[in-house]
């Protein structure tokens, strides 16, 4: 027996105050406010996302109770306003209760700040609310969402700061690092989630402000850093990724990101020196409220390379450094940190010396 039906929740009732339901200026076409699927010259101010163009969102449960872990898919349809950048969609899904009863779930999904172009400073925040009363078994509490938009993304940081090559970093002979093959680019190196590296601090470092990338605001000195690609440029030489700092190396399949200990970066491959040069920015207020999250303080630089020579002592296939460009006496400065990958397998990637 299914509790609830998919037809009892209308778009107009829940979304008209956000984006009014009306006929678009043109015929409907496949356009995504989240990811480009092709180009069309004239985009209407109001785009209807019908069933065939609706979006499925997967939610991963990382409950301490293993029986509650899994994936839940929602199918939404609704309207996006190009003028206001607001999107509202109504959708549904199914799940099982603890008693094994099949439950129908219905929700309204709302996003702000979805535009036709974006930069590293652009964040899209939103909420997902249940359409069932709180006393119903189909009800769930509000879910806050934070997205990194990909539509019309412009790499503004690396294009400015690395126009004359990758600055800073310890001087390493070019022949000491591997170049990438034509088949495998720098973007291929970050296709899989969980590219983790161990952090190596100076011997005098403890939890002091000058060592911690987050000063003393998180209560511990991060031991592991992971690089997770958000998107890659068409030429496969520039990419954007989320850099997360953690206190341990474990990263399960259903684990969520901790935005309060993460930074977002733009990286560009320097083919002359065979290294990835990255500018990274802090995410602020992500721990208190995703709705208030914003990007700022882009003074962190990261350099990454692939050593050409390995030894019994040095087995890491990925090494690099991360440092602050701020003056030492300025708030937010931290000393240079060396990192080495924890997965010593080069896997399927092709290199050439």
List keywords for this structure.
mainly beta; disordered N terminus; seven-stranded antiparallel sheet; disordered C terminus; single chain; 353 residues; eight-stranded antiparallel β-barrel; 35% strand; elongated
Q: Which term fits the overall shape?
A: elongated
Oligomeric organization of the protein chains: single chain
Strand order of the largest sheet: 9-10-11-12-13-14-15-16
Q: Could you estimate the helical fraction of the residues in percent?
A: under 10%
- Overall pLDDT confidence: 76
> Using only CA atoms, what is the Rg?
23 Å
Helix and strand element order: HEEEEEEEHEEEEEEEEEE
Strand segment count: 17
Biggest sheet architecture: 8 strands, antiparallel, barrel
Separation of termini? 63 Å
Number of helices: 2
Low-confidence stretches: 1-6, 26-31, 36-44, 49-56, 60-67, 345-353
Give the structural class.
Answer: mainly beta
Strand content: 35-45%
Q: Would you write up a description of this structure?
A:
This protein is mainly beta. It is 3% helix and 35% strand. It is built from 2 helices and 17 strands. It has an 8-stranded antiparallel β-barrel with strand order 9-10-11-12-13-14-15-16. Strand 10 and strand 11 form a beta hairpin. 26% of the residues are buried. Mean pLDDT is 76; it is low at 1-6, 26-31, 36-44, 49-56, 60-67 and 345-353.
Secondary structure topology:
Elements: H1 11-15, E1 46-49, E2 55-61, E3 70-81, E4 87-96, E5 102-111, E6 124-130, E7 143-147, H2 157-161, E8 179-180, E9 195-200, E10 224-232, E11 238-246, E12 262-270, E13 275-284, E14 294-305, E15 319-324, E16 337-341, E17 351-352
Antiparallel strand pairs: 1-3, 2-3, 3-4, 4-5, 5-6, 6-7, 8-17, 9-10, 9-16, 10-11, 11-12, 12-13, 13-14, 14-15, 15-16
């Amino acid at each position: 027996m299914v509790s609830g039906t998919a037809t009892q929740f209308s778009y107009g009732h829940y979304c008209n105050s956000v984006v009014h339901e009306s006929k678009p200026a043109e015929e409907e076409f496949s356009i995504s406010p989240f990811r480009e699927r092709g180009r069309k010259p004239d985009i209407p101010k109001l785009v209807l996302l019908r069933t065939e163009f609706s979006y499925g969102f997967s939610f991963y449960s990382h409950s301490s109770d293993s029986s509650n872990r899994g994936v839940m898919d929602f199918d939404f349809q609704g309207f996006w306003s190009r003028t206001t950048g607001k999107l509202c969609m109504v959708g549904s899904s199914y799940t099982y209760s603890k008693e094994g009863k099949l439950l129908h779930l219905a929700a309204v999904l709302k996003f702000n700040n979805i535009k036709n172009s974006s930069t590293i400073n652009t964040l899209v925040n939103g909420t997902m609310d249940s359409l069932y009363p709180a006393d119903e078994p189909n009800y769930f509490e509000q879910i806050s969402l934070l997205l990194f938009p990909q539509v019309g993304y412009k790499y503004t940081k690396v294009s400015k700061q690395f126009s004359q090559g990758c600055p800073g970093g310890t001087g390493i002979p070019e022949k000491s690092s591997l170049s990438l093959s034509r088949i495998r680019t720098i973007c291929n190196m970050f296709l899989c989630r969980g590219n983790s590296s161990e952090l190596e601090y100076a011997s005098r470092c403890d939890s002091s402000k000058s060592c911690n990338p987050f000063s003393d605001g998180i209560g511990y000195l991060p031991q592991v850093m992971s690089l997770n690609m958000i998107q890659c440029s068409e030429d496969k030489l520039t990419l954007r990724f989320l850099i997360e700092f953690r206190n341990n190396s474990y990263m399960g399949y259903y684990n969520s990101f901790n935005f309060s200990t993460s930074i977002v970066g733009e990286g560009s491959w320097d083919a002359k020196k065979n290294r990835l040069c990255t500018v990274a920015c802090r995410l602020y207020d992500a721990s208190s409220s995703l709705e208030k999250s914003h990007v700022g303080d882009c003074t962190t630089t990261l350099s990454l390379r692939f050593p050409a020579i390995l030894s019994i002592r040095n087995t890491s296939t990925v090494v690099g450094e991360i440092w602050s460009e701020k003056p030492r006496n300025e708030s937010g400065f931290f000393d240079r940190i060396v990192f080495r990958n924890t997965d010593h397998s080069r896997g399927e990637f092709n290199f050439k010396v």
